[in-house]
Amino acid sequence: MKMFEVRVLDLEFESQTIVMNESDAEELHVGLGSRVKVTVDGREAIANTSFSSFLVARGEIGVCRSLVKLLGVSGGEQATLEVMTPPLALEYVRKKMKGEELSYNEIFAIIQSIAKEELSSAEITAFVLAQYFKGMSDREIEALTISMAESGEKLRFKEKTYDKHSVGGVPGNKVSLLIVPIIAASGLLIPKTSSKAITSPSGTADTMEVLAPVTFTIDEFREIVERVGGAIVWGGGLNIAPVDDIIIRVEHPLMIDPLPQMIASILAKKLAVGVNNMVLDIPIGRGCKAQSKEDAEKLAAKFLKIGGKLGINIQCGITYGGQPVGYTVGPTLEAKEALEALMGRGPMSLVEKATALAGILLEMGERAEIGQGHVVAKDILRNGKALLKMREIIEAQGGDPHVKPDDLPVGEHVATIKAENDGYVVDVDNEAVKLIARAAGAPTDKGAGIILRFKRGYKVSKGDVLMEIHSENERRLSKAVELALSLIPVRVEGMLLGRVLRDNAL
Amino acid sequence: MKMFEVRVLDLEFESQTIVMNESDAEELHVGLGSRVKVTVDGREAIANTSFSSFLVARGEIGVCRSLVKLLGVSGGEQATLEVMTPPLALEYVRKKMKGEELSYNEIFAIIQSIAKEELSSAEITAFVLAQYFKGMSDREIEALTISMAESGEKLRFKEKTYDKHSVGGVPGNKVSLLIVPIIAASGLLIPKTSSKAITSPSGTADTMEVLAPVTFTIDEFREIVERVGGAIVWGGGLNIAPVDDIIIRVEHPLMIDPLPQMIASILAKKLAVGVNNMVLDIPIGRGCKAQSKEDAEKLAAKFLKIGGKLGINIQCGITYGGQPVGYTVGPTLEAKEALEALMGRGPMSLVEKATALAGILLEMGERAEIGQGHVVAKDILRNGKALLKMREIIEAQGGDPHVKPDDLPVGEHVATIKAENDGYVVDVDNEAVKLIARAAGAPTDKGAGIILRFKRGYKVSKGDVLMEIHSENERRLSKAVELALSLIPVRVEGMLLGRVLRDNAL
């Protein structure tokens, strides 16, 4: 077998890539874009092939940065190349495309192949779309969940663990920053992993990151949770169920999230970190996963069933998701509001939702009588124990435990949107709020976001400020304002929704 | 807007790629793998982003070879970058995924976006899979065909044109090398574009390439056809319906070819080169598109209907596809057999099929009375006019017009597979034949392939040679032989299909 000398290239690609000399490629019948297995000292990696005529000489292969890590090379090593035949997993993907049920081993093989980058993004898309069009049985979802959990790091705690998760869709949903310290303060373990925003203005990990670092190894995470009872860290940093991140990357442009994949995505991460009990928040409303109570109940039943088979005891809380939770949207603004709430000055919509969900966990963990969880959760919040626990968690994660809401800087560039007439607020549009906050710079610019001054049902007078937009940058602020004027995020009864400037009948 | 200096990189990727300095990328919020629009002097191209820390300095962008051509740069130019927002076409793909019917304009936008590389291979996969799972109306297929034809070069002849196409699946199908000269010899124009093999051991373009070059520009192609009445060229070289090639690349690993895409793929290329009349060969048999006569008739009806709307007059010939056509498989072996047939020494299965299909075209072109086409085609073949015309075509395409079958060198490494007992041949397996010929090196190694000594219904005696395998390379020959011994491509009645060496019951 022909040997190649490894040459390290100062290049980084979205997927693993090697550069071959094109004469070598021609001689060996390797086509542009072919998938090859590179082997160096027994370590293997799969890569796409690109060509060069001079940059990489004959007998050399150039390897990109991520491959350098994976193969542990520094240049000069001897490597062998092998053109990949299509993995067996591709056959199983085609089987699923035909609508057939896959076995545990077949699903496991697909997930393993995704993890090893043996499947291209187009092939992964085919797998996700087969789920989208053909659905999956409960047994398949179970296999998918276990396989994804097995694709990365795993954790087991000695004590029982508790967790909260939301299926998402509602902006301003900073409830985890209240629920985690309430539960930890009650003496239960809550190892909360959360995500960074993909399409929303702030994920829980983005919001927490304003108060403390969120990127830890799995061992650091375990240590923090065991020491202070809880943590709020970024799941993406822990290498748990890493295949899920790869799958999300292909789902995102297509805006699909097939039910089997959504359930497996959530439960695989819980399984990986050893969660035994979970409350699942299912908001109902426009732009949410569930549009009606019936939808939510169906979704809940599915989660309960699959969770049960996997040994995760789940209870679902169906919540109102028709407008943002609390008044703020964007990492820093949300962190401030959560901190205010822990200090006893939070808005009702935030406090009620957080304590209701925390209450369910307290009842599951026998820290409250059945029916008393909500009250006990409010007590822990009101008597300051939750705030104290949150400061411990912040400190354990390397943040400033003495942080005050006013210490947190928000975007200096501010614009206000005012009411054009008197009336009642009839709608606050989740989608519009998300788009405007993102246009202002959230979540990348932590200080960017929105403060709502009124919510549904409030009476406003002409000229009242309906919302403030904060940005770190004048250009982004202008874009956000432009969007706010066209999308009408806060709708006041009787307001003009459009103006006909002249007769269009002609 | 920030300007970048263009730096030409000696790198070639499967898709358009630029390399940015990672500090620039961070500052401008450009993620790894983001799709950006690069503009230089008003010329635009879409590319994927990769990063470098030293190879490309701040303020520079590295461009790969295919972009160098597209943008017409040589280094040192000023370029601007713009992160692409998802194209509207992606919304239409999602609409199709929901099963909605797309308008002409929506399909046109999707095809344009594929042509401009605005859609990723995963997004193109989603479009093809939406067709696979949801189907397409006749109007959608029509729009798809026109849009694909519009994506590349187009040709119009002054006279009416005739063409033959096979939906494929049968190995050894060298009939076009007989049909084109028969039709051209009758005085009709036959501008035949054909494909190179993707999964088969030899496409018509691969076989013709043994006799003459097949890669031409659209103007060279027109000139040859107008001068000698016919040509057999590689469609991929003409830049006709280039989007089809992009789509085929994503279909191939998934082994799908949804009906709407298959019809549009064939008809778009015919539309592009101005074909008015076509005979479509639909073989029936294992491994073919049609499994039964009913399947074939349904497929034919669909082609006739869509063809009619597009102004292509189609007649279908349903043919037997249960075993290879003629006795040879592989580019050179097939070219030899076609030449022998033109010289009057062809096997019946080849001659009958070719003249039957040519006969339909002769009737369509009023060169034969209805019902007499087959006879007239055989006459043109027998009286040597087809051979003479073939030599003209070979010369016009730059080959040796005096070529004799024995001039064509086949693989020197030969193995034979022999009958293990007396009996009748009950099956010659198309799929096995294809796999063995490809293992021997076809179509890349022109001289590699198979000669069948017997076909279905023949009586053989123990020790008779059933097939010869030719290869240019000892290693590939061994692999092909190994495959032949396990796949049993030629099955003799009464032969042992497996041997139980000892009792498995234990």
Share of helix of chain A, binned: 40-55%
Strand content of chain A: 15-25%
How would you describe the shape of chain A? Answer: globular
End-to-end CA span of chain A: 78 Å
Give start-end ranges of low-pLDDT stretches of chain A.
Answer: 501-506
**Main interface: chain pair and counts:** A-B, 43 and 43 residues
Instruction: Assign the CATH superfamily of the largest domain in chain A.
Output: Nucleoside phosphorylase/phosphoribosyltransferase catalytic domain
Work out the oligomeric state of the chains in this entry: homodimer
Mean pLDDT of chain A: 92
CATH topology value of the largest domain in chain A: Pyrimidine Nucleoside Phosphorylase, Chain A, domain 2
Radius of gyration of chain A: 26 Å
- Quickly count the domains of chain A: 3
In CATH terms, what is the architecture of the largest domain in chain A? 3-Layer(aba) Sandwich
Sheet/helix structural class of chain A: alpha/beta
- How many DSSP H or I helices of chain A? 18
Descriptors for this entry?
homodimer, 506 residues, alpha/beta, Barwin-like endoglucanases, Pyrimidine Nucleoside Phosphorylase, Chain A, domain 2, Aldehyde Oxidoreductase, domain 3, 3 domains, six-stranded mixed barrel, four-stranded antiparallel beta sheet, 18 strands, globular, disordered C terminus
